[in-house]
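RECORD TYPE: inverse folding
INPUT: structure tokens
STRUCTURE:
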């Protein structure tokens, strides 16, 4: 099942009252947990799960992926505490040190158990989801496949655009290619954790991911500014063509900024799709600019 199908499943589910236990069976896939949580008097949150199946139920409490660009710019915290749970039968569950956003726990068959989640801020509760292990693995695999395919497509298009630019000697296309390249580095840095395997070969890139995001943002912003100034100040060949390209790319870039700010203010505004919409708009910006360079009319710049 794709990540988009799972997202629609979550959006269409109707939450019960927070005091009602979640009645789950072996067929459970995913749900947004916050509607079923209630605040505890001494801080933290409580939720209850009823295992209506005949086998022990294994579940994963999962925090939505963080907004990497907001963290790189210092607008959000770079980390949060390891998730911990205490059950009503005196068991304790904790997330692994290398996977702070996940916590695996179990509910015995035929039982109703309450779970206490300490220390999590009220603003972070909308970002918590409950998964079956199989559904979460499928979701993460779908994200990795989608991100890898989009980046591969953009890199192929980048090389095609670069070849066309060199053959036609178009200076404006050079600006477009460099702008798209900068935004692609930004997109790759944002998706790095999903695309690159977590091993020693890529550890340097993963550790310096936030620096790569800052550099790519600066490069993409600079080349976008140069492209706009060239269009406004200088008389250029194919002016109407490049005006249309820049207008469409600006619309896509504006959508990226809107979704990015929206995610900062309301992290769960579109459920599981909240973390994808802004980055998809950024990918569409790169696609628009690269296609503009590929299909530039066959006229040499005269300046």
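DESIGNED SEQUENCE:
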């Amino acid at each position: 099942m794709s990540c988009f199908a799972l997202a629609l499943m979550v959006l269409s589910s109707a939450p019960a009252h927070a005091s009602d236990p979640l009645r789950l069976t072996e067929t459970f896939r995913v749900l947004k947990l916050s509607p079923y949580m209630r605040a505890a008097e001494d801080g933290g949150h409580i939720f209850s799960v009823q295992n209506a199946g005949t086998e022990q139920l294994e579940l994963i409490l999962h925090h939505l992926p963080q907004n990497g660009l907001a963290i790189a710019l210092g607008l959000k915290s770079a980390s949060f505490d390891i998730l911990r749970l205490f059950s009503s039968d005196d068991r304790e569950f904790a997330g692994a040190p290398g996977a702070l956003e996940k916590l695996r726990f179990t509910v015995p068959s035929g039982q109703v158990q309450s779970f206490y989640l300490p220390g999590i801020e009220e603003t972070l509760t909308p970002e918590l989801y409950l998964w079956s292990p199989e559904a979460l693995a499928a979701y993460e695999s779908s994200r990795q496949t989608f991100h890898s395919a989009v980046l591969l497509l953009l890199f192929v298009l980048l090389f095609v655009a670069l070849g066309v630019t060199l053959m036609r000697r178009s200076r404006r296309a050079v600006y477009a290619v460099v702008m798209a390249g900068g935004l692609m580095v930004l997109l790759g840095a944002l998706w790095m954790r999903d695309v690159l395997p977590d091993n020693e070969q890529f550890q340097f890139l993963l550790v310096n991911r936030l620096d790569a995001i800052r550099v790519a943002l600066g490069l993409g912003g600079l080349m976008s500014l140069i492209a706009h100034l060239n269009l406004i100040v200088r008389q250029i060949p194919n002016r109407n063509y490049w005006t249309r390209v820049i207008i469409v790319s600006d619309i896509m870039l504006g959508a990226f900024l809107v979704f990015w700010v929206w995610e900062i203010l309301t992290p769960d505004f579109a459920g599981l799709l909240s973390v994808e919409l802004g980055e998809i708009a950024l990918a569409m910006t790169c696609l628009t600019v690269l296609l503009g360079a590929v299909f530039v009319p066959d006229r040499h710049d005269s300046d």
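NOTES: The beta strands are 22-24, 30-32, 38-39, 45-51, 57-63, 84-87, 92-94, 102-107, 112-117, 128-131.
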